[in-house]
Amino acid sequence: MKKYEIEKQGQIEFFETFRIDYQNNNVLIDYTDGVWKGNLLEFKLNISNINRTLFQAIKYLSRMRIRGESVPANILLISLNQQICYYFKSEDYFDEIHEVYFGASSKNNDSFVGGTYVKKIDYSNQEGVVDLLNLLRMSNYMPINIDENCIVGWAERYYSFYPKATKGDFIGDDTGKVKILGEIRNPKLFKGLINPYTKKSNEKFKYLMDKLNDKLRKKTLGAFYTPIPYCVKAKELLEIAIKNIPEGNDYIILDRCAGTGNLESVLTDEQLSHCVLSTYEYYEYKVLCERLADKVRLIIPPVEMEDTYNCGFVSCADAMSQSYINNPLIRQYVDNPKCNIIMYENPPYNDTSSITGEYDENGKKYTTRNKNSFVFQEMSKVKNEFKNSNISTVRDFANRFIWSAYKYYLIKPNDSYVVFSPVKYFKTLGIIPNDNKKFVKGYIFNRKWFHATPSGISCVLWSNNKTTESKFLFEVFDINEDESLNKLHSIEVKKVNKTFNNYQEKYIGQNLCKLACNSSGYEEVNKKIETTSYDDDNVLAYFCLVSASFDLGRLVYFNGRGFYLTKDNYFNKLPLFCAKKYP
C-alpha cells in the first residue's frame, strides 16, 4: 500500500475513533485534511518537522480566510504512527494567517520557524484521549481582519445568506449623508468571525467594487473595472485626442461611467483638471469622490445632498436618463463652441433582457435602468437605421452608451471618443456612422483582467472626421503576472455586412416537443420558451448563438435565436460552427 493510502486509512480510523462524521461535506474542506467544529486537522504518518507541518496548516487557514470561510481557533497536527497531537492556537499566528501564499501549501515550508505548541497530547492513553476529545468539541473561531484580499469571499458568503441584500448592507459607508454601517463595520451574521472594519471609507477596496456587488446588481450594472496596465495604454489614445484640440479651445474629458476612477487614476494633474466624471453606484461614487474630487474639474453630483442616495444608486447620475443628458453642469461645455468634448469611457456591457428588478433595503422591489430609460426609448426609435440590428442591440448597455455619446455629446469637429467595448458595435452593428467617425488607433485587450471571462475587448480612439474605412488594424496586448503589458501581435478587424441571422432557416416540423435548453445545455424550466421545438428524425441538431459563440445542441435554444440543422441543410450550414472558434 502506498504512503498516501496508508495515511488516508489512518485518517479515517482517527475520524471513526473520535466519532467525527468524515462523510459530512463540512469536514473535508477543499485541500485540508479536515475541519471539525473549531479545529483544523492536519495528518501525517510521522511529523518529523513540526514547523514545516505547522506552516502548511497556516497556509490552509490563510486560504480559508480569503475564501470567506470561518477560521478555526485551533490547529491540531496529528502524527498518526506516534499517536501524538500537537495543539497550536491560530491567534498566535494571526499575522501569518493574514498573508497571501501562492503555490501548493505543502511546498517551500522548511524555512518557517514557529512558536512552541500549546500542548502535546499523547492520545494512546485514556487521559490523552479525553484531552483531545475536549478540543474536538470546541466550536471557537479566530476573528479575522477584512482586507482587499478576503473581502470578495466574505461578500459572496454574505449574499448566499441574504440574496436580497445589497452592497450597502455588506460594506456600508459612514462618510456621507446616508449612514449605513454595513456588516463589515457592525458584524451580525459574522459576529465572532470577523473583526469590525474601522476605516471610515471604502477607498481600500476601490479595485474590487464590482466584485462586491450582489449577483443581481452585477448583472444590472454590467460593470467591469479597468486594470491599470490597460489604463496606461488608453491614456496614450487620450493624449492623441488632446493634441487634436484646436489652439485656443478649452476641452473636457467626460466619463459617465467612471466607477471608482481606475481609468483616470493614471492621468496627469493637468489632464485630471479637465475631467468631468460620474458613476451610478452610490458606494463607487463615495470612493470616486475620495480619490479624485480635489483633482478633477467636476464630479456629478459635486457634493452629496440629502436626496443623493437612492436605493444604493446616485439619484442624478444615471447617464441613460434625460435629466442627466440635460444636466446644465455638462451642457455648459457641450453647447460651448469653444470647448471640445473628449469622451473617455469603459461603459458597462451587458444585455438587460433578463433583468427584472432589484430590492431596496426594505425589501421593496423597484425598476432598474432597462427599457424605461430615456436612451433606450430614443435608440429604439432609430434601431432600424443600424446595420444588422435588432432589439438586443438596444438592450446592450455598451451600445446605448456609445450611441448616446454621438447623439448628445460628440457633435463638434475635433471631438473624440476613447472607448472600451467589444468590437461588434462597429464591426457588425454600425452604431457609429461611417461618414463622419474616423478610426485613429486601437488596441485589443484580454477581458479576463476585468474580473470577467477571457475574450477580446477593444479600446479605440475615434475622431469626428469623414472616413470610408471598412477594416481596422489593432495591436493586441495581454497582462503578464508582474502586471506589465505583453504585446502579442496585430490583428485586422473588418466590418461585416452579414451576420448569423442572415443564414438562419425556418423549419416547420411534424413532431412537437415541449423541451428547450438553456446556455448550459440543461432543460430550461424557469424562462419563457420563445420558440417551437420539434423531435423529428430529419433534425440532427440545433445551431444557436450563445454569448457571442456558436453552439450545437440536440434541443432547441429557449429564446429561438438559432435554427435546426437537418439532413437537408447541414452540409452547407455546419461550417458556420467553426466561424467563431479560436484556432
Structure overview:
By secondary structure, this protein is of the alpha/beta class. The chain folds into four domains: 3-136, no CATH class; 151-221, no CATH class; 228-349 and 357-434; 500-578, no CATH class. 25% of the residues lie in helices and 20% in strands. It is built from 17 helices and 23 strands. Strands 8-7-6-11-14-16-15-17-18 form a nine-stranded mixed β-sheet, with helices on both faces. The chain has a five-stranded mixed β-sheet with strand order 1-2-3-4-5, sandwiched between helices. It is globular. It starts with a helix and ends in a 10-residue tail after the last helix.
**Tally of DSSP β-strands:** 23
Specify the structural class.
alpha/beta
Total of domains: 4
Sheet with the most strands: spatial strand order: 8-7-6-11-14-16-15-17-18
Quick one: overall form? globular
How widely separated are the two ends?
45 Å
- Give average pLDDT, whole number: 82
Integer-rounded radius of gyration: 29 Å
Classify the beta-strand content into a percent band: 15-25%
Total helical elements:
17
- Extract low-pLDDT stretches: 214-223, 351-369
Q: What's the main sheet like? A: 9 strands, mixed
Portion of residues within helices: 10-25%
